[in-house]
Design brief:
single chain, alpha/beta, Aspartate Aminotransferase, domain 1, Aspartate Aminotransferase, domain 2, 2 domains, seven-stranded mixed sheet, about 15% strand, binds pyridoxal-5'-phosphate
């Protein structure tokens, strides 16, 4: 063909992490068909949707089967019943939002990737390591990216200290609790970021996908911090707490105060969504409403509790063995320092060979991930017990 392509895709490269893991595991199991592999690498939930959610979805399916209650296109930004449920959820954190500031979507991943369309040629600050979508979507858009190193020295929680920031604003990504490190920003730290963003005219994109895992008093929403409405967009999802990874429902909050270049970001995002997105299915939105109800919330916290029991089993083995790690407290992820090697892929191979456990090499989440390794708590209690026993021998 003679068409011109988006040259930026050359700099994104192949997404190689999970295919490389799959190929190494396949090679190992071919050579050792008797090995019972335990997968602690997945970033996907395993428990089913809860009864409140499935019964609401069943009722919605029945409505769709009747001429009198059938629904076609959903309102572009979400049904009122769901916007109100999300608004009530924020009210529990003491955060007041208008429903016109909430945009229901089919996933935090889509919104994280799509929101880059709203911005011009800014410098983008991205934590390293972090969820790879932030970097890749900005590379696809041809943006200048600078990394915020998350290291043992800063407790895996980079702060704005030392950032220049004079003249122009940054686009700043914050993921708290973080994937993959499990590190969580406390109130003072988030206040420092909000203060920095307001002083420099920067925008924070706050990814709260693991909000429900927070158990230690850290903020669940960036809007718990004074001044955040003037500098932050928040993206949240039902994937990791309500088990919606395959059902798909999330939302993005864009406060009315956010303006740049004389334009309202809230109006811009609305325009973008109305043009390129046609809404989340009615059945799914009814399920999401149920997940956010009092009963649904209780059930979802039961799912979170189940996963967090896994996290604490894994964490206690690491503690007992003197392995350096973070996470596993307000996060389903454990981020450990590789032992016996500085290479997270070498560690991957050794853990696979000696303990038949699959995890995720830290190098896959950014340069600063090298030398680290992610374990997840999304497995069953039985598999995690077995993994914990094997890890006790391994370390
Ligand atoms: C899983 C995950 C998401 C994706 O959420 P979806 O709503 O399923 O698209 C977003 N951000 C982070 C940090 C995640 O780990």
């Amino acid at each position: 063909m003679k068409i011109k392509i988006n040259e930026n895709y050359r700099s994104v490269g192949k997404s190689y992490l999970f295919s490389e893991i799959a190929s190494r595991v396949a090679k190992f199991t071919a050579a050792h068909p008797e090995a019972r592999i335990i997968r602690l690498g997945i970033g996907d939930v395993t428990l089913p949707l809860t009864p409140a959610v499935t019964s609401a979805m069943s009722a919605a399916v029945a409505e769709m089967a009747e001429k009198s209650t059938f629904r076609g296109y959903a309102p572009e930004f979400g049904y009122d019943f769901l916007l109100e449920a999300i608004k009530r959820r924020y009210a529990r954190f003491g955060v007041a939002l208008g429903t016109s500031e909430i945009f229901v979507s089919d996933g935090a991943k889509s919104d994280v990737g799509n929101i880059t369309e709203l911005f011009g040629d800014n410098t983008v600050l991205i934590p390293d390591p972090v969820y790879p979508v932030y970097l890749d979507s900005n590379l696809m858009a041809g943006r200048r990216v600078e990394f915020l190193p998350a290291t043992e020295e800063n407790g895996f929680l980079p702060m704005p200290d030392g950032l220049r920031g004079e003249g122009e604003g940054y686009i700043i990504y914050i993921c708290s609790p973080n994937n993959p490190t499990g590190a969580v920003y406390d109130r003072e730290m988030l206040a420092a970021w909000v203060d920095f963003a307001n002083r420099t005219g920067s925008l924070i994109i706050f990814d709260a996908a693991y909000e429900a895992y927070i158990s230690d008093g850290c903020p669940h929403s960036i809007y718990e911090i004074e001044g955040a409405r003037g500098c932050a967009v928040e993206i949240c999802s039902l994937s990791k707490d309500a088990g919606f990874t395959g059902t798909r429902c999330s939302w993005t909050v864009v406060p009315a105060e956010l303006t740049a270049g004389g334009m309202s970001l809230c109006e811009m995002w609305g325009r973008r969504q109305a043009t390129k997105f046609n809404g989340v299915p009615y059945v799914v939105q009814r399920g999401a409403e149920a997940a956010l109800s009092d009963r649904g919330r209780e059930e979802c916290l039961g799912l979170v509790k189940y996963y967090m029991e896994n996290a604490s089993k894994l964490a206690s083995v690491l503690r007992e063995r003197g392995v350096t790690f973070t996470g596993g407290v307000s996060s389903p992820y454990i981020w450990l320092k590789c032992t016996g090697t500085d290479s997270s892929w070498e560690f991957f191979d050794r853990l696979l060979t000696e303990a038949n456990i699959v995890g995720t090499p830290g190098a896959g989440f950014g340069k600063c991930g090298e030398g680290y390794f992610r374990l997840t708590a999304f497995g069953s209690h039985e598999a995690t017990d077995e993994a914990a026993a094997r890890l006790r021998t391994f370390f």
